[in-house]
Amino acid sequence: MTDVHDYAAVGVGPANLSLAALGADVENLRSVHFEARASFSWHPGLLLPEATLQVSPFKDLVTLVDPTSRYSFLAFLAGEGRLYRFLTARFPAVLRTEFDQYLQWASRTIPSIEFGTEVRSVRERDGYFVLHSGHGEVTAANVVLGTGQTPLIPDFMRPHLCADVFHAGEFLAHPREVSGRAVAVVGGGQSGAEIVRHLMRLDEPPQSITWITRRPGLLPMDDSPFTNEYFFPGYAREFHGLPQARKQELLGEQKYASDGIDLATLQDVYRERYRHECLLGRKDWLRLMPRSEVTGCARLSDGWELEVKGAQTSIVRSDVVVLATGYEYRLPDCMSELAPRLARTADGLVVGDDYSLSLDGETTGRIFLQNGARHAWGIADANLSLLSWRSAVILNAILGYRRYNT
Ligand SMILES: Cc1cc2nc3c(=O)[nH]c(=O)nc-3n(C[C@H](O)[C@H](O)[C@H](O)COP(=O)(O)OP(=O)(O)OC[C@H]3O[C@@H](n4cnc5c(N)ncnc54)[C@H](O)[C@@H]3O)c2cc1C
Q1: How far is Cα of residue 177 from the mean position of the Cα atoms in its chain?
Q2: 339-346 long-range CB contacts below 8 Å, 24 or more apart?
Q3: Has residue 135 got a pLDDT over 90?
Q4: Ligand 1 within 6 A of 189 CB?
Q5: Among 257, 337, 366, 393, which has the minimal tally of Cβ within 10 Å of its Cβ?
Q6: CA of 153 to the centre of ligand 1 (A)
Q7: Residue 100 parent element (H or E)
Q8: What is the position in ligand 1's atom list of the atom closest to the CA of 333?
Q9: What tens digit of pLDDT does each residue of 22-73 get?
Q10: Is residue 378 scored above 80 in pLDDT?
Q11: Residues of the chain by 3-state class (helix, strand, coil), percent to 5
Q12: Is residue 132 in contact with ligand 1, taking CB distance under 6 Å?
């Protein structure tokens, strides 16, 4: 067949954008990258102006496998004429808005990306994969899934979702009326902390904020040097080779290396609380409820009543409820036909040492998975740290030779 792509990628977030950047200069590679959104945007609902990257900007699309690539963060800064000013600004961490600009810049310069194209189905035909979108069909020898993670929302909250009860990922999606109102933030991870900090800094802040978390406290992300080795390719490989039961133990032990709150955000929240309560006299303005789980929600005529189980059961009345309750991986709907043919364990999909899924049948092509294999590859899977390395592993597997040193 002449019009078969070597691979078709579904979703263009940072993961498949990295793949596109690493593949952009590979001769004779025929690839296409489909993105449902009209243009690139990086978690736009949480792109708060003060939010920063939790990792080094060298963990960009390409640098850790190809420091000479024209798609590096440094190349972006140089292209924008910002290098000297960026260095002189000495940000303790790069603003997420700037990293989003970098990702957008890369997405505009890579020709194989088709925006505004949602893949609706992936089927197998004559040993190839056929992808359907509203714009027609494309045939590819391999598929790379990079559709990101899905918001986790407790089942009992689903019927209440509305303009005042929403997942954190939707925070900026609509204008929110929070000033002078009682706001409850559920979830003690990074997103919860960023939203609490943002609410505390508003010119017209909420009347009160209640921050509820199951965690024993507002625990910091472990960003210390030896712990950071969990985010090395060598460790990821070692983890991948362990028995599944051991992986589960380690995921529990290592949780706060990826899911804690970064220290600078915690300090900001602490200082804001001091300013509001001690200097502005707003006593008990930020109420912290650790070791507490929201177990129910009821609608009132003028707000919401959350049932919270901690040492005792209590009721929290609120006008606005922000669910900073995290994300989980789910196969995208477009995979519904092939999903029954994918091998699984009790913990999730079987993901091979080149990130390919195990598909039964005769197909010679493979389906690769980006950012859906924490259970198989460890805590670094959802993080930017292994972004370029994982893309290089996948690209090498598709090409059938070692284009990148992984
Ligand atoms: C707010 C936030 C901040 C983060 N900050 C950091 C950080 O500082 N450092 C770090 O290491 N990690 C961070 N992470 C974790 C991780 O790096 C990001 O979640 C990253 O965006 C994951 O990239 P992705 O490409 O896998 O998924 P996504 O960014 O979610 O992109 C998936 C894309 O697929 C598209 N899509 C889905 N289905 C289809 C379809 N059927 N057809 C076409 N397109 C489709 C979606 O529109 C979306 O654009 C952050 C996560 C969040 C939520």
Answers
A1: 26
A2: 342/367, 345/244, 346/244
A3: no
A4: no
A5: 337
A6: 17
A7: helix 96-109
A8: 41
A9: 999 999 999 999 999 999 999 999 999 999 999 999 999 999 999 999 999 9
A10: yes
A11: 35, 25, 40
A12: no
Mutation test residue for ligand 1: of 16, 22, 37, 43, the one with most atoms within 8 Å of CB: 43
In one-letter notation, the amino acid at residue 329 is Y
Which residues lie below 8 Å from residue 325, measured CB to CB, with a gap of 6+?
A: 151, 152, 153, 154, 167, 168, 186, 187
Separation between Cα atoms, residue 250 and residue 257, nearest integer Å? 11
Overall residue count recorded for the chain in this entry: 406
Helices (H), 333-401: 374-377, 387-399
3-state secondary structure of 253: helix
Segment 314-319 shows an average pLDDT of 97
Measured from the CB, is residue 382 less than 6 Å from ligand 1? yes
Q: At 2, is the pLDDT very low, low, confident or very high (cuts 50, 70, 90)?
A: low
Q: Count how many Cα atoms sit within 13 Å of the Cα of residue 15 in the half-sphere of its side chain.
A: 27
Q: Are 73 and 60 in contact (CB under 8 A)?
A: yes
Q: Which amino acid is at 346?
A: A
Write the residue with the smallest CA distance to atom 20 of ligand 1. Answer: 14
Superfamily of domain 4-149+329-399: FAD/NAD(P)-binding domain (3.50.50.60)
User: Does 13 contact ligand 1 (Cβ within 6 A)?
Assistant: yes
User: What's the gap in Å between 184 CA and the centre of ligand 1?
Assistant: 25
Q: Which residue has the tokens 């070791």?
A: 291
State pLDDT tens for residues 70-104.
Answer: 999 999 999 999 999 999 999 999 999 999 999 99
Q: Where are the beta strands (DSSP E) in 40-135?
A: 113-114, 119-125, 128-133
Look at residue 176 in the predicted model and tell me its pLDDT.
85
Cα(13)–Cα(352) distance, integer angstroms: 22
CA of 14 to the centre of ligand 1 (A): 6
Please compute Rg for the chain using Cα positions.
Answer: 22
Taking the domain 152-220+260-323, which CATH number applies? 3.50.50.60
Whether 375 lines ligand 1, by a CB cut-off of 6 Å, is no
Bridge partner list, 351: 357
Q: Whole-angstrom Cα distance, residue 356 to residue 349?
A: 10
Q: Where are the domains of the chain?
A: 4-149+329-399, 152-220+260-323
- Ligand 1: which atom is nearest the Cα of residue 47? 1
Residue 29 Cβ contacting ligand 1 at under 6 Å = no
**For ligand 1, atom 29: residue with the closest CA:** 13
pLDDT at res. 92: 93
